[in-house]
Amino acid sequence: MDRKHRVAKAIALSFPILLASCGGGDQTSQSAEPPAVNLPVTTASLTTSMDGTAASGTVESDDRVQLVARASGTIRAADLYDGQPVRRGQILATIDARQAEAAVRRASAALDAALAEQRDAHGDVTRDAPLAQSGALAMDAYRKEQLRDSTAAAGVTQGQAALTAAQVDRSYTSIASPFDGFVVSRQIRDGDMVMPGSPLVTVESRGQLVFRFAAPQASLGMFVPGAATPVLLDGREDRPVTGTVRGVVPSADPATRRYTVEIVLPADSGIMPGMFGRVRLPSATNHGVSGDTVAVPAAAITDRGGLTGVFVVGQDKRLTFRWVRPGDRLGDRVTVTSGLSAGERILARVDRTVRDGARLAGGATR
Q1: Segment 298-336, tens digit of pLDDT
Q2: 218, 253, 288 - which closes a domain
Q3: What is the rounded CA–CA span in Å between residue 180 and residue 166?
Q4: Is 228 part of any domain?
Q5: Strands of the sheet with 64-68, listed across from one edge
Q6: What is the pLDDT of residues 8-51, one digit of tens each?
Q7: CB neighbours (10 Å) of residue 91?
Q8: Which of 1, 18, 117, 191 has the fewest Cβ atoms within 10 Å of its own Cβ atom?
Q9: Which residue range forms the structural domain that includes residue 109?
């Protein structure tokens, strides 16, 4: 009994010590400071924007043609490929020209025969003119000679036209680029048999690029010819390109009730046909008035507990998570419509180790 009593007493005496130890552990964990952060810092800046919706469109070449065959024969285009740069007048493909050459030779021979007939007939008229005037040659016979001369002259004219047509047909056997540009697609392969009207190759010029999009009737007032209009192209949102309105197609699409607007883009080697982009349309409240909004790096925006925000750097270098409302993406930056003011310092990049209340250990402002 004495031994059991001593064990129970020892357990009773040690229990408060265990409780105190556990309580001290909780206090230590609660007072632990989040690890310091060594990440770059940036300043929220203003960027020009326009409220309202956006209209989507596509960059297109103002010079795009599909070349078709105008003669029949076997095509030769061994060196033709998609994306090939071409020059004005460069031969892209040829069609077997043997039939066209034969037609030119036939027309040339026919013209030679017509010229010989004309010379003979005209010689008779010239020789017999004095005889007809003196009465030595019957007028009926002389009129027949004149008719033969006129017919021979018409035959020459016809022969010349036939030769020209044959030469033109022969020129159709060489398919040349109408301008400097690129081959965007080819519809033939070397050795294919083609007929007049068969599509051969599509060539596109980079000389003049146009952004085409559809706008509602209420927005047409801001797209008058000559008006400067910013265009945001995918992948280049941080570098808007300003184009000039060329005009509006004065007929709406019956399904969408929208009008096609054409904006001529400036020369820029980074802009290519097929690029997707957007144009801001005026809202009902501001009628398209431009303003300024705050923009931050996209890497600065993060999610914490289902909330979207940024980490603001205080004067004491303490980080505070602040909820913001993100807007449009502009390249590697995002507009912030509420929750942040221009000039405030924030983390330019956030990872999962950053905690609210942590202190900034370093980081260069950019």
Answers
A1: 899 999 988 999 999 999 999 999 999 988 776 677 888
A2: 288
A3: 28
A4: yes
A5: 64-68, 199-204, 181-186, 85-86
A6: 444 444 444 444 444 444 444 445 788 888 999 999 988 655 44
A7: 13
A8: 1
A9: 98-171
